[in-house]
Amino acid sequence: MRTRVPSRRYDSVRQDWRAILPYAKGSLFFDHTDKLENAYVMLSVSLNEAISLRQNGDGEKANQEIVVVGELCSRLALRINAVLHAMGQHARHFGIVPNLSLLDATNFQSELGQRAARHSNLVCQLLLSERSQFLNKLNTLEELVDDLSDEFIRIARGGGRRHLQYAVTALEIPGAKPV
Prior knowledge:
This protein has one domain (23-170). Helix content is 73%, strand content 0%. The chain is built from six helices and no strands. It is globular and about 55 Å long.
């Protein structure tokens, strides 16, 4: 007996994103969104504080703050990867094949991110099933989150003005001003 993959409700990623979720899925989505947003806000506020302290000449306090920022970055990365991993497990278990758009290399500021996006897209074009393409994309994003957070934490632990500037760059923060 062959099982069929559930059909899609919509034909595009844009339609999927605009669709209304059933109550149970919606509450799960908003719960995880809140947790991710809270972790991101805590990281952003601490990073801004470290940058302000550095710019105001208080290097010692900035170095202390950047250590905290490293820990907050680790927590955010853990939450992001938990969501990505759960999506992959769900797709594997239920055979879900969502609409898929390729990673856009221009959305990444670092060479590492751009290279990973291009590699993922190349692999997706070679893989035959849409499910494999989706799982590859999730895996690529998990690896990117791990690599970027590891680099940020390594740099943050080094301390110093130059390290703070590299840490901001490692997070791929759009529009971030050099420290």
